């Protein structure tokens, strides 16, 4: 079918503005030009799209069906124009961010939401991975940036601090079959179920805080792990921000002592060192670094 986007835009403007004159003002065209564009469109289609019998023009039933599809096409054309503008400015149309399992979701997602409000034409591809998964995706160049902990001495990574997370060994009251002591060690815990997070990396690395002799249940995320521990079905190390309320209320007890200690990890924004970054990725990097500096 031989019609132009200009003709579709003229039809849409007449309908949205209510008259040919108002459409002409909106599109910065003359009244005769708008009228001719709509008449040409109707002639090409062999359809009467507009009912001109009243003061305010309106669609015929055929026009309503056609206009629904025309609006979709005009929206796609506008999106394509925005993409072309981005490409001309050198801006990325897509960014891939991976969030690690220990990263506080509320904080991380809040920062990403605030940032991408200022870059609405760049599509955020957000993925959640556990333990070695974020590093694996970044090293395979399947992510532009990760929010996770890294080995800060690893020269492959460039990093900027985002927040700090404390990990605390916890269990529900009554979970242990022996009185809790500060010298509680792996031997006493070997008979108790430990809840551990499944490494989402294709090639899993080291285990963290795992008692090798103990029976274990493996879960995919920290929220399922917490649920099992709160129900008294296992024990394990949990990020403090997820269990602080339960520790205060007594729904969970800390197992901190000589052998099971509280530890802290720096959650960072990390990217591959030396890899070129576009303007949106660079702006996101600066935004995250500034958010940390404002906090400290």
Automatic annotation (TrEMBL):
<keyword id="KW-0805">Transcription regulation</keyword>
<dbReference type="Pfam" id="PF03466">
    <property type="entry name" value="LysR_substrate"/>
</dbReference>
<protein>
    <submittedName>
        <fullName>LysR family transcriptional regulator</fullName>
    </submittedName>
</protein>
<dbReference type="InterPro" id="IPR036390">
    <property type="entry name" value="WH_DNA-bd_sf"/>
</dbReference>
<dbReference type="InterPro" id="IPR005119">
    <property type="entry name" value="LysR_subst-bd"/>
</dbReference>
<dbReference type="Pfam" id="PF00126">
    <property type="entry name" value="HTH_1"/>
</dbReference>
<dbReference type="InterPro" id="IPR036388">
    <property type="entry name" value="WH-like_DNA-bd_sf"/>
</dbReference>
<keyword id="KW-0804">Transcription</keyword>
<feature type="domain" description="HTH lysR-type">
    <location>
        <begin position="1"/>
        <end position="60"/>
    </location>
</feature>
<dbReference type="InterPro" id="IPR000847">
    <property type="entry name" value="LysR_HTH_N"/>
</dbReference>
<comment type="similarity">
    <text>Belongs to the LysR transcriptional regulatory family.</text>
</comment>
<dbReference type="GO" id="GO:0000976">
    <property type="term" value="F:transcription cis-regulatory region binding"/>
</dbReference>
<keyword id="KW-0238">DNA-binding</keyword>
<dbReference type="GO" id="GO:0003700">
    <property type="term" value="F:DNA-binding transcription factor activity"/>
</dbReference>
């Amino acid at each position: 079918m031989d019609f132009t986007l200009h003709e579709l835009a003229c039809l849409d403007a007449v309908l949205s503005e209510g008259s040919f004159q108002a459409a002409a003002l909106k599109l910065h065209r003359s009244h005769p030009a708008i009228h001719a564009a709509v008449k040409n469109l109707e002639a090409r289609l062999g359809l009467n799209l507009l009912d001109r019998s009243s003061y305010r023009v309106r669609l015929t039933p055929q026009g309503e069906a056609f206009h629904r599809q025309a609006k979709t096409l005009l929206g796609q054309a506008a999106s394509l124009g925005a993409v072309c503008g981005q490409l001309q400015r050198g801006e990325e149309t897509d960014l891939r961010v991976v969030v690690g399992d220990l990263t506080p979701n509320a904080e991380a997602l809040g920062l990403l939401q605030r940032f991408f409000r200022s870059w609405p034409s760049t599509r955020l591809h957000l993925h959640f991975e556990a333990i070695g998964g974020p590093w694996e995706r970044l090293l395979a160049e399947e992510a532009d940036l990760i929010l996770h902990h890294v080995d800060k001495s690893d020269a492959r990574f460039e990093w900027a601090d985002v927040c700090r997370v404390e990990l605390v060994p916890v269990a529900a009251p009554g979970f242990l079959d022996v009185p809790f002591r500060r010298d509680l060690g792996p031997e006493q815990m070997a008979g108790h179920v430990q809840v551990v997070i499944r490494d989402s990396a294709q090639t899993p690395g080291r285990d963290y805080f795992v008692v090798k002799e103990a029976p274990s249940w493996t879960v995919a995320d920290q929220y399922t792990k917490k649920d099992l521990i709160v129900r008294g079905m296992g024990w394990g190390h949990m990020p403090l921000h997820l269990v602080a309320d339960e520790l205060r209320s007594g729904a969970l007890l800390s197992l901190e002592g000589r052998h099971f200690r509280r530890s802290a990890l720096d959650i960072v924004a990390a990217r591959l060192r030396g890899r070129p970054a576009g303007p949106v990725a660079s702006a996101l990097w600066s935004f995250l670094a500034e958010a940390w500096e404002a906090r400290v």
